[in-house]
Amino acid sequence: MLKIIYFIKSEKSNSNDECPIYAKISYQGKSITMSTGKYISKERWKFTSNLRGPLRVQKEKVIKASLDSLTMLFETKFNLLLKNNATINLNEIKIEILGKKQVKTKTKIGLLDIFDIHNKDFERKVEYGERSPASLQKYDRAKNLIKIFLRKKYKIDNIAVEKITGAFIHNLESFLKYESEYKGILWLKQIFTDKFIDLFQAAYFLIST
């Protein structure tokens, strides 16, 4: 199973005494590392339990959303290869994500396709006790809300990732705040909307670069 761990390199701290955050990706005994392009102080990294604890600083929330998006993007590309019985090369996935190689694909990836692949893989992690059922419910909820949004606002069942624009994200945020309904409750709490949009924007940035 694919495993992604984030760590900092304190020996490479910048002039602001912040350390670069790296990702270690492992699969079947092989592993690679890649820079996330994000920085954090050694003290804050430790204080927040490697950004896994409760976060109150906005900058750290954005960094966490970016790391979550990187995980989702890597897992999506990995699972697409796995689904097509293709050879898994972690370094090639890394190169593709960093935008250093143009990869031709016959089928365009839709936004809901990403959620389908991610949630299915997340479900396996729940079965092995690596993730909580509550977290899986949140991802399923997010997918359902996007599906409702696409049908209500655009009269479509899916949208190609490359067609996602800033206006799309703005409309999604407005929908979540004022029009969405979940289990009979109209309008989502601002804290959920902010968290969802932070994650969505980070994911969009990673995919579009």
UniProtKB/TrEMBL annotation:
It comes from the Bacteria. Residues 7-93 form the Arm DNA-binding domain. InterPro entries: Arm-DNA-bind_5. This is Phage integrase SAM-like domain-containing protein. It comes from Flavivirga aquimarina.
